[in-house]
Amino acid sequence: MCYNNLHSFTIDRQEGRAVIDNQLATSQHRFAFKLFAELTKSTSEKNVFISPASVALALTMAYNGARGETERAIARTLELGEIDLDALNRANAALIESLRALDPQVVLAIANSLWAKQGMTFDPAFLRRNREFYGAEVATLDFGDARAAAAINDWVVRNTNGKIDKIVDRIDPSAIMFLINAIYFKGNWAKQFDPRRTREMPFTLSGGQQKPHPMMAQTGKFEHYATQGFQAISLPYGAGRASMAQRCAQGAGHGHRIRSEARRLRPHGRRWQAERQYRRG
User: Fold this and answer.
1) How much is the pTM?
2) pLDDT (tens digit, 0 to 9) for every residue of the chain, 281 residues total?
3) 138 and 130 in contact (C-beta within 8 Å)?
4) CB burial string 230-244: b at 16+ within 10 A, e below
């Protein structure tokens, strides 16, 4: 079983970009693996493709308008700890700004929007914070109009470069707002794979069965970490500011092993820095 994710990033102020709050990075890391564990409970035999950053940003936008038990539940879910709302919003704004300017060789677009039901009144502070810190586009629609769903879907198409063509089939009469986050990523490997080295090789499924599948291959120097039954490797994109961290485990309980080892090895965290190796292969 393998788990892939994009690394988290810390950008130095001396390079003209905001420093991402370490507490936010820790919270998002914990949330990501908690979300992954929850989603794979009922889909252990299927691939799961998620963007924890997208889910976290959308929940944080909603958190700005939450009160009482809903507010506390979102805070627990996002592992916010003692981070207050203003600090959280500012840290997320810095994160979005830094990721957008991460690497000229990588396309990383982040967009947010709020689609409010016509005739409903919303807290102006909630709308203002989402505009100010999350760059959210705020629009009012007549949800009874068949064209309302098309307007939302058109926004999604534009902000995912056509990769997602529909997110709303129909609008339920009880709906009062749609809160949407879109993230689009496109990057070339820092070191390209030679297609002539791609070979059909056995791929082991979570149940132990094998099936042939095309496998890429290259030789190079990469950040690598290994323990008994577990391996992790970091494959950089573009100029190296973004990378794919791939974690693989073998044997029974591989899903639990991936999650537990990944928590120990936060990307760019102290343990990863201390224990990783540079390995050719």
Assistant:
1) 0.80
2) 444 444 444 344 434 334 446 788 888 888 988 888 888 777 666 777 888 889 999 999 999 999 999 999 999 999 998 889 999 999 999 989 988 888 889 998 999 999 999 999 999 999 999 999 999 999 999 999 989 999 999 999 999 999 999 999 999 989 999 999 999 999 999 999 999 999 999 987 767 788 999 999 998 888 888 877 778 888 899 998 888 888 776 654 555 555 555 555 554 444 444 444 444 45
3) yes
4) bbbbbbbbbeebbbe
Q: In terms of Cα–Cα distance, which of 9, 56, 10, 62 is closest to 31?
A: 56
Domains and their CATH numbers in the chain: 18-100 (no CATH), 106-187 (3.30.497.10), 195-280 (2.30.39.10)
Cβ count near 260 (within 10 Å): 14
CB neighbours of 44 closer than 8 A, spacing ≥ 6? 206, 255
